[in-house]
Protein backbone atom coordinates (compact mmCIF):
# COMPACT_ATOMS: atom_id res chain seq x y z
CA UNK A 1 0.00 0.00 0.00
CA UNK A 2 1.41 3.37 -0.90
CA UNK A 3 0.89 6.72 0.79
CA UNK A 4 -2.24 8.36 -0.57
CA UNK A 5 -2.80 11.18 1.89
CA UNK A 6 -6.45 10.14 2.14
CA UNK A 7 -8.72 11.80 4.64
CA UNK A 8 -11.40 9.92 6.55
CA UNK A 9 -14.17 11.73 4.62
CA UNK A 10 -12.67 10.29 1.40
CA UNK A 11 -13.92 6.85 2.53
CA UNK A 12 -10.53 5.22 1.86
CA UNK A 13 -10.60 1.54 0.90
CA UNK A 14 -8.24 -1.38 0.65
CA UNK A 15 -8.47 -4.92 -0.65
CA UNK A 16 -6.32 -7.99 -0.13
CA UNK A 17 -6.70 -11.23 -2.11
CA UNK A 18 -5.28 -14.73 -1.97
CA UNK A 19 -5.60 -17.93 -3.98
CA UNK A 20 -6.67 -21.02 -2.05
CA UNK A 21 -6.17 -24.61 -3.17
CA UNK A 22 -9.68 -25.63 -2.13
CA UNK A 23 -13.11 -25.55 -3.76
CA UNK A 24 -15.14 -22.32 -3.46
CA UNK A 25 -17.82 -24.13 -1.40
CA UNK A 26 -15.27 -24.99 1.29
CA UNK A 27 -13.89 -21.43 1.40
CA UNK A 28 -17.42 -19.99 1.43
CA UNK A 29 -18.42 -22.11 4.44
CA UNK A 30 -15.48 -20.64 6.40
CA UNK A 31 -16.12 -17.03 5.32
CA UNK A 32 -19.79 -17.18 6.33
CA UNK A 33 -19.18 -18.71 9.77
CA UNK A 34 -18.68 -15.52 11.78
CA UNK A 35 -18.02 -17.58 14.91
CA UNK A 36 -14.62 -18.50 13.40
CA UNK A 37 -13.53 -14.89 12.86
CA UNK A 38 -12.33 -14.07 16.41
CA UNK A 39 -9.86 -16.95 16.10
CA UNK A 40 -8.51 -15.37 12.93
CA UNK A 41 -8.21 -11.79 14.20
CA UNK A 42 -6.05 -10.06 16.78
CA UNK A 43 -8.65 -7.30 17.22
CA UNK A 44 -12.00 -9.09 17.10
CA UNK A 45 -12.54 -10.85 20.43
CA UNK A 46 -16.05 -12.32 20.03
CA UNK A 47 -19.05 -12.11 17.72
CA UNK A 48 -22.65 -13.29 17.81
CA UNK A 49 -25.74 -13.05 15.65
CA UNK A 50 -28.61 -10.87 16.92
CA UNK A 51 -32.41 -11.08 16.64
CA UNK A 52 -32.42 -14.88 16.37
CA UNK A 53 -30.36 -14.91 13.15
CA UNK A 54 -28.34 -18.09 12.63
CA UNK A 55 -26.31 -16.97 9.64
CA UNK A 56 -25.86 -14.28 7.04
CA UNK A 57 -28.79 -12.83 5.09
CA UNK A 58 -29.42 -9.26 3.96
CA UNK A 59 -30.75 -7.38 6.96
CA UNK A 60 -29.33 -9.79 9.56
CA UNK A 61 -27.33 -8.19 12.37
CA UNK A 62 -24.42 -9.29 14.52
CA UNK A 63 -22.46 -7.71 17.34
CA UNK A 64 -18.68 -7.82 17.50
CA UNK A 65 -16.54 -7.15 20.56
CA UNK A 66 -13.09 -5.79 19.75
CA UNK A 67 -9.92 -4.74 21.50
CA UNK A 68 -6.98 -2.62 20.33
CA UNK A 69 -3.93 -1.38 22.22
CA UNK A 70 -4.52 2.27 21.21
CA UNK A 71 -8.34 2.32 21.13
CA UNK A 72 -9.25 0.13 24.11
CA UNK A 73 -12.28 -2.18 24.05
CA UNK A 74 -15.56 -1.59 22.21
CA UNK A 75 -18.44 -3.32 20.51
CA UNK A 76 -20.22 -2.58 17.26
CA UNK A 77 -23.39 -3.80 15.60
CA UNK A 78 -23.03 -4.78 11.96
CA UNK A 79 -25.77 -5.11 9.38
CA UNK A 80 -25.50 -7.54 6.46
CA UNK A 81 -25.96 -5.36 3.37
CA UNK A 82 -25.00 -7.79 0.61
CA UNK A 83 -25.30 -11.55 0.54
CA UNK A 84 -24.99 -13.69 -2.58
CA UNK A 85 -24.55 -17.31 -1.44
CA UNK A 86 -21.25 -18.71 -2.61
CA UNK A 87 -20.02 -15.32 -3.83
CA UNK A 88 -20.36 -12.19 -1.64
CA UNK A 89 -20.85 -11.46 2.06
CA UNK A 90 -20.74 -7.77 3.09
CA UNK A 91 -21.73 -5.80 6.16
CA UNK A 92 -21.91 -2.19 7.28
CA UNK A 93 -20.72 -1.34 10.79
CA UNK A 94 -23.24 0.56 12.90
CA UNK A 95 -25.57 2.68 10.71
CA UNK A 96 -25.97 1.05 7.27
CA UNK A 97 -26.83 4.47 5.77
CA UNK A 98 -23.74 6.12 7.28
CA UNK A 99 -21.41 3.27 8.33
CA UNK A 100 -18.23 3.65 10.31
CA UNK A 101 -16.84 0.93 8.01
CA UNK A 102 -17.96 -1.52 5.34
CA UNK A 103 -16.42 -4.99 4.98
CA UNK A 104 -16.81 -7.47 2.11
CA UNK A 105 -15.63 -10.99 1.38
CA UNK A 106 -15.75 -12.12 -2.26
CA UNK A 107 -15.24 -15.74 -3.34
CA UNK A 108 -14.49 -16.67 -6.99
CA UNK A 109 -13.51 -19.97 -8.61
CA UNK A 110 -10.04 -19.59 -10.12
CA UNK A 111 -7.45 -21.98 -11.58
CA UNK A 112 -8.97 -25.07 -10.00
CA UNK A 113 -9.21 -23.43 -6.58
CA UNK A 114 -10.62 -20.25 -5.13
CA UNK A 115 -9.71 -16.59 -5.15
CA UNK A 116 -10.73 -15.01 -1.85
CA UNK A 117 -10.65 -11.26 -1.38
CA UNK A 118 -11.48 -9.11 1.60
CA UNK A 119 -12.26 -5.45 1.00
CA UNK A 120 -12.94 -2.70 3.52
CA UNK A 121 -13.87 0.96 3.52
CA UNK A 122 -13.35 3.42 6.36
CA UNK A 123 -16.22 5.78 7.08
CA UNK A 124 -18.00 7.94 6.36
CA UNK A 125 -19.74 7.52 9.75
CA UNK A 126 -17.82 8.23 12.93
CA UNK A 127 -15.66 5.53 14.50
CA UNK A 128 -12.94 5.24 17.09
CA UNK A 129 -10.58 6.68 14.50
CA UNK A 130 -12.71 9.83 14.43
CA UNK A 131 -11.82 10.55 18.06
CA UNK A 132 -8.09 10.31 17.30
CA UNK A 133 -8.58 12.66 14.34
CA UNK A 134 -10.57 15.08 16.55
CA UNK A 135 -7.63 15.23 18.97
CA UNK A 136 -4.99 15.69 16.25
CA UNK A 137 -6.69 17.06 13.10
CA UNK A 138 -3.35 18.12 11.63
CA UNK A 139 -2.32 14.44 11.60
CA UNK A 140 -5.53 13.10 10.00
CA UNK A 141 -3.88 11.76 6.85
CA UNK A 142 -1.19 9.99 8.84
CA UNK A 143 -3.77 8.53 11.27
CA UNK A 144 -5.84 7.21 8.35
CA UNK A 145 -2.77 5.81 6.61
CA UNK A 146 -1.51 4.03 9.74
CA UNK A 147 -4.94 2.50 10.43
CA UNK A 148 -5.25 1.31 6.83
CA UNK A 149 -1.81 -0.31 7.13
CA UNK A 150 -2.97 -2.07 10.31
CA UNK A 151 -6.08 -3.30 8.53
CA UNK A 152 -4.02 -4.43 5.54
CA UNK A 153 -1.84 -6.60 7.78
CA UNK A 154 -4.83 -7.91 9.72
CA UNK A 155 -6.74 -8.80 6.55
CA UNK A 156 -3.71 -10.59 5.09
CA UNK A 157 -3.41 -12.60 8.34
CA UNK A 158 -7.14 -13.45 8.30
CA UNK A 159 -6.98 -14.60 4.68
CA UNK A 160 -3.94 -16.74 5.47
CA UNK A 161 -5.78 -18.42 8.35
CA UNK A 162 -8.84 -19.06 6.14
CA UNK A 163 -6.48 -20.50 3.50
CA UNK A 164 -4.82 -22.81 6.06
CA UNK A 165 -8.21 -24.10 7.27
CA UNK A 166 -9.62 -24.54 3.77
CA UNK A 167 -6.55 -26.40 2.53
CA UNK A 168 -6.29 -28.66 5.60
UniProtKB/TrEMBL annotation:
SUPFAM superfamilies: Bet v1-like. InterPro entries: Polyketide_cyclase/dehydratase (IPR019587), START-like_dom_sf (IPR023393). Pfam families: Polyketide_cyc2 (PF10604). The lineage of its organism: Bacteria, Bacillati, Actinomycetota, Actinomycetes, Kitasatosporales. This is SRPBCC family protein.
Amino acid sequence: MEWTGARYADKPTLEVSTWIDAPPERVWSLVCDISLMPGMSEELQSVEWLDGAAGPAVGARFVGHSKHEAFGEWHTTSHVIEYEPGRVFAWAVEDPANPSAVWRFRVRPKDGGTELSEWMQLGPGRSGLSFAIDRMPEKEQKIVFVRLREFEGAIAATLEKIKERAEA
